[in-house]
Amino acid sequence: MAVAATAKQEESRVVLSARGLSKSFGAFMAVKNVDLDVHHARVHALIGPNGAGKTTVFNLLTKFLQPTAGSITLLGTDITKTPPDRIARMGLVRSFQISAVFPHLTVLDNVRVALQRTNGLSTQFWLPVSSLDRLNARADELIESVGLKRERNALAADLSYGRKRVLEIATTLALDPKVLLLDEPMAGMGQEDIGTVSNIIREVAKTRAVLMVEHNLSVVADICHHVTVLQRGEILAEGDYATVSQDPRVRTAYMGTEEA
Amino acid sequence: MSEMTQTAAKPRIERSATASRTYTIFVIIGLAALILAPMFFYPIFLMKLLCFALFACAFNLLLGYTGLLSFGHATFFGGAAYFTAHVVKEWGFPPELGILTGVVGAALLGLVMGFFAIRRQGIYFAMITLALSQMFFFFCLQAEFTQGEDGIQSVPRGHLFGFIDLNSSTNMYYFVLAVFLIGMVIIWRFINSPFGMILRSIRENEPRAISLGYSVARYKLGAFVMSAALAGLAGGLKSLVFQFATLTDVAWQMSGEVILMTLLGGIGTLIGPIFGAGLVVTLQNYLATSQFPVTIVTGVIFMVCVLVFRRGIIGEFYASRLGRKLGFEHRR
Hints:
- The complex is a heterodimer of chains A (about 260) and B (about 325).
- Chain A has a single domain, classed as 3-Layer(aba) Sandwich (Rossmann fold).
- In chain A, about 35% of the residues lie in helices and about 25% in strands.
- Chain A has 10 helices and 10 strands.
- In chain A, α7 (about 190-205) links the parallel β7 (about 180-185) and β8.
- In chain A, α4 (about 105-120) crosses α5, α5 (about 135-145) crosses α6 (about 160-175) and α6 (about 160-175) runs parallel beside α7 (about 190-205).
- Chain A is globular and about 55 Å long.
- Chain B is mostly helical and about 325 residues long.
- In chain B, α4 (about 95-115) packs across α5 and α10 (about 250-265) runs parallel beside α13.
- The two termini of chain B are about 25 Å apart.
- At the A-B interface, α3 and α4 of A face α1, α7, α8 and α9 of B.
């Protein structure tokens, strides 16, 4: 009984939150007064038409951009002024809209680069590269979990677009992040890869918080617990997919017409 | 689709095995050539060549493996030459300690310059390094210990470890060769290390490296200091070979020359800069006595390089049919 209660509590825990987040580029307000709460063990989607400011919100949350106003809290710590690499070390790891792999490294090396940091094997300039072989077991586990086993020794540049995105997720998971920010993880993927990635995200979100930008609404409907709709930098609607998708304002924003 | 990547991946591994075999053979041939070279060539010329080859390789560590174009490497080369010359001549340091002083001094200069430059990228990085190295040039011009326009002359070579007389040019040559090889081994190890792996990932995709939690600036600074220290090793050695250290070594033309050597030889190849340095030094030596002006000839060669063989001598060789047959593969 008590266990179930704590589990419940755990489930609704807010791990990443933003209050009054704003960003202006000169006179243009890209993001206006956005409040966002990302919960543990939930998949949270950020959707909205092109130019709504989704990627800017991502850049603000991960501190690749400095917000003009507002505050951000990660796991109870104020990170409004923290540099991006330290945020990554605190457990908030992001992916990018364009695929973020290291193209001229092999799949194995891509994953190992992430593991190098968490295993304290990144500053040793006097050791041979073979000293990294002890990361192989964990790297192979991750590679296998996303179904890249056959491409293990291929260069990342030689992978198809979908496979690159999958590799990117494996690399991100290597850091064992507490909060995962995925910027359009399914963009440009074939149907088969979408299924794989959906399953991976669902699995991953059992023990972590996931915030993702996604255009594919059937994916959003399928795997996201909570949806925030952005339009022109402001929050238009919020709630579960069923509620949000029935909201007439959202329908207008997406289709341009009421009845669409 | 995955079928295809699979078949594409297989030969790559086999090829790299062939590459390491050819590489070993080349290294052995190269070593033999370097050991026997003083029988056929003027030793001072060879020593100059080795010093500049090491300098270019140190520079390439930064440009080729970290992606940073420094326009101030003369500071480390020339600075170390001054430090070594000074402590050996005025304080009576033995040659090995003299060179060590040069290396430490260059590393400290690298730390300072790197600290200011590393947060900027591309042309801004190059400009800051150039500006700082010009400041160092004027410091050297004014400071007393460098003896201004005269430079530090007649630096004694001394006795290595107290008993090997370096005034014999054969002894000196093998000493220079040994230091050069140690420098190359350090560079090779540095590139092929966990640290080198992170440098490569930064060069490949810097935002991604940051998002994985790496403080990119620190890794770049590490590479910068290492490159400066190795450039200092070359500079200190050079001041013992020629027995002087002058303003030429810290002038911006020296920074430009090392860029030229690296480009000609092949950026991002371990041995390319050696060939680039060899070509430039040989040209300088032969043209010095002819009526062709050196700067114009090297300038023309530079233009041809940029227009026709951008990968540099070794880079083009790796990418050629013969190179690929031997198992090399030119990255990027």
